[in-house]
Design goal:
The longest helix is centred in the last third of the chain and has 32 residues, at about 285-315. The chain has 15 helices and two strands. The chain is globular. A hairpin with a 2-residue loop joins β1 (about 160-165) and β2 (about 165-170). It has helices spanning about 5-25, 30-40, 45-70, 75-95, 100-110, 115-125, 130-150, 155, 175-190, 200-220, 225-230, 260-270, 280-285, 285-315, 320-349, and strands at about 160-165, 165-170. By secondary structure, it is an all-alpha fold.
Amino acid sequence: MDSQRKKKRTGFTIGLLFLSGGIEYAVILPTIWAYLQKLNAEPYYLGLALSAFSFAGLITGPFFGYWSDRTHRTKGSIMFANLFQIAGNFMYFVGGSKWMLLSSRLVAGVGTGAGASIFGYLTRSTTSQERSKVFAAVMACRQVGLLIGPACNLFLRLCNFHLGPFVVNKFTSPGLFMCLVWILLQIIVMVMYYDIQPPTHTARSVSAVQWDALEDEQKPLIGHEGRQGAATEGSCYGSTLVGPPQPSLGDECRYVPNGHLADEESAGEDKNPFHQFSSVKEYLREEVVVLLTAQFITLFNQTALETMVTPITQKYLNFGELENSIMYFLCGVEVRVKRGDTVTEQGVC
């Protein structure tokens, strides 16, 4: 299989992973509040259950990113993370207590840390010109998942049967549904995901050209036979005698001011632009701080609204799972359309 086809299959698989990640986050929003009430949980458990998912991804993301940077392989880390998604959703399906529900979201959140590995792969496998488009496409898949997730409850709420010792109803069906989705994705990753390494033929060709040029410079202008001929014709006017090559002088014969050879050698290293690079200074730049702060405020307000809307609609509007699912779906459509208009306006400008 050619590399272009492998790259397309890998990109398609990454899109499915982020799509499923969006569904994973949003599919429980319409029903988790009623689920916790059924388990006699305190109201603050709603915030704990929703934040545990993101908290686990925040903690495990750097570890998955470090794994990817060290090995330059992401397939293993993705499959390992999917195991946590499968286990966490199965725990959510089993339920039984408020602690099991909280633990299930914490375990499932560990799997979201693989996003760091995927972004590392995308950074290595794309050029600077196409990287923004690829990142935008990947995040668009997640946004579509956030839109589809609540709508899945339109049919999941109709489930009411037994699966062995387990009860499948409108509360537990999202866990079973996502467990099956992640099992299917695990198979897709095994078959269609490839760890494509960045092309290195350009660098190799440049090195080969430089090496050939260096060899040409080291070749003598007059070969061995030419030197013999010059020796026999040395009596001719204008002939030049070519003597034996002078031995190369080592570092001990090279003139260095004050004799500081180490200082001279280190001067070349200081010319490296990444020698003085500091990640702390890079992230503390004014424009970076402003962007990160704006992103934090946006996500904080969004998640706070998502957490509070179901208790409020239940208390004041007497909404159930169906009404909440429709509300989340319509709000998601409005947000996506608004973001699409904003991107279009920026493109026109």
